[in-house]
Write a structure and sequence with these properties.
Elements (H helix, E strand, L loop, with lengths): L1 E6 L7 H15 L5 E7 L2 H8 L2 E4 L3 H8 L4 E4 L2 E4 L7 H14 L3 E9 L5 H11 L4 E4 L2 H10 L6 E2 L10 H8 L19 H9 L1
Helix pairs in contact: 4-5
Length: 206
């Protein structure tokens, strides 16, 4: 049985990150019954019940190491995990999980992430050292790829869609079954900085 560990910003009840996790899990489960998934979560009990997977507290390194010793693959992502504008501990934490997986000879997948901003020089150094050891590396936009190249990542970097788009399009299915062609889309925008980008989003959606 394949044992996969997923690392990300999970268990904090952040709607976007939970949607990413839901998409990843549902996609992995389509590959058959021979996959066991463990999620590193801030709230393992809720995560386990919500997604029907194993879950470990994200800061319990003893349990994480024990799970890694019997697992095959680590998926780090999605989301914007490697940035240092929300806290200086964020990048070292996520990279430490990847590095532990490398040390345990697991396949390491850096999956569909947005990268940056990275303002601290030591964090750039850590990113270069750790991500160059991964087996698969993908980002969700060109800016993230360019930043990784600038930092010194010399591996192949693929640009892929955000993991949330792996989720089956329920709205499209409903429209087809009810013979309707109109699809309504809800957009939730997070306040950031002076919010000048709001108008650009509105103009694009119109």
């Amino acid at each position: 049985m394949k044992k996969i560990i997923i690392s990300g910003y999970y268990g904090f009840d952040n709607l976007g990150d939970e949607a990413i996790l839901s998409s990843l899990i549902s996609t992995l489960k389509t590959f058959g019954q021979g996959i066991e998934i463990t999620v590193l979560s801030n709230n393992p009990t809720t995560t386990s019940k919500r997604y029907d997977v194993n879950s470990i507290y994200r800061y319990n390194y003893f349990d994480i190491l024990a799970e890694m010793r019997k697992s095959d693959t680590l998926i780090s992502g999605g989301g914007s995990l490697l940035q240092d504008v929300t806290g200086y501990k964020t990048i070292p934490y996520y990279l430490s999980i990847i590095y532990l997986a490398v040390l345990n000879k697991m396949k390491t997948v850096f999956f569909a992430q947005g990268v940056g901003p990275v303002n601290i020089g030591f964090n750039r150094f850590l990113i270069k050292k750790v991500l160059n050891k991964t087996d698969y590396l993908s980002v969700r936009d060109l800016r993230s790829k360019n930043l990784l190249r600038k930092i010194g990542i010399n591996k192949n970097i693929k640009i892929v869609s955000d993991p949330v788009f792996l989720k089956q399009n329920c709205a499209s299915t409903h429209a087809t079954s009810s013979n309707k062609t109109e699809i309504k889309v809800g957009v939730s925008i997070r306040e950031w900085g002076d919010n000048r980008y709001f108008n650009c989003i509105v103009d694009y959606l119109n």
